[in-house]
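[INFO] parsing input record for RNA polymerase sigma factor (Sigma-70 family)
[DEBUG] input buffer:
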Amino acid sequence: MEARINLTDEKLRRAAPAVPSGEAPLWNALRAGSGEAFEQIFKLYYPSLLNYGLRFNKDDEEVKDCIQILFMNIWERKAFLGNSDSIRNYLLASLRRLILKRVKSNPLTVALDDDDSVFHVELSVEMKMIHDQTLKESVSSLQNAIMNLPARQKEALYLRFYNDQSFGEIALIMNISTRAVYKLIYKALDALNEELAPQGKDVPFVLGVYLSLLASGSVAGEGVEVLIKFM
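[DEBUG] output buffer:
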């Protein structure tokens, strides 16, 4: 039998269920073959997966394809999945590996190592949402400063402040040590403060505005479909 998840991205953003207090039962239900648990996980985590994936590849269709491949692989391998303390972390780490693997295997792209992988954080249309000129200038200055950071520092900042991940969770997602995560984040914050503090910018506040804008423009518009084959 086949079942389809066919929802627009906007519906996914509005209708996603609340994060369960304990994820183990939901994950275990998926492992046991529950299509309902699979669909719930998909709707719950799709927006954050798309947002994160677009940081590595601006081609939204390619990122959506990667998300579908990820979920199809999960369904096909459900009986062999291990325990997971965090579904979101598992999905983010898996999507990261898949996107980078596909980028590296594409003969039309420049070969990438994990250390120099691209991480996009540009704002464009979203800047029009800011009507206060002073704030707009502050966000623009912050974006320019962030653009000058190494890709892994940008990614660590994104996971920490947009996704609210712990240092340990970021380490698992990025496949590095917790100590390395601390270094990435603090070096990034030091660089931002060094550049923006002399201008009188409130870095934590502007960073919050910036990340909110980054989120607002990432999930929109077209439909997405996942085909699930129930055994």
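[INFO] Residues 68 and 226 are 6 Å apart (CA to CA).
[INFO] shutting down worker
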